[in-house]
Write a structure and sequence with these properties.
Radius of gyration: 13 Å
Strand content: over 45%
Distance between the termini: 39 Å
Number of strands: 10
Strand order of the largest sheet: 2-10-9-4-5-6
Largest sheet: 6 strands, mixed
Number of helices: 0
Length: 112
């Protein structure tokens, strides 16, 4: 079972940037690591993007060109770098390798 501890997030104006971090343990990278978000008032958590074992990244359409995922294996940390944030990016962001184990969630609020 993976243990996941998130940090980062906060409030920014539209166009701003934030970086989230996910420190993981007990994770074997078989399924990579994904970032998900849950918009206000919604139950489902939608995929933002993933980073695979090999380091390749894949993003949802809304994240392409604005978000990036990277990792620092020495720190067992995966990062979600978010640029050009929009109001619609507001939500709680989670890291998860398999949609079963989840980080505690990090609030991201984009407002003017």
């Amino acid at each position: 079972q993976a243990q996941l501890v998130q940090s980062g997030g906060g409030s920014v104006q539209p166009g701003g940037s934030l970086t989230l971090a996910c420190v993981h343990s007990g994770h074997d990278w078989a399924s990579g690591m994904g970032w998900y978000r849950q918009a206000p008032g919604k139950v489902e958590r939608e995929l933002v993007g993933v980073i695979t074992r090999s380091g390749s990244t894949h993003f949802a359409a809304f994240a392409k060109g604005r978000f990036n995922i990277s990792r620092d294996d020495a720190k067992n940390t995966v990062y979600l770098q978010m640029n050009a944030l929009e109001i619609s990016d507001t939500g709680v962001y989670y890291c998860s390798p398999d949609r079963r184990d989840w980080g505690q969630g990090t609030q991201v609020t984009v407002s003017s």
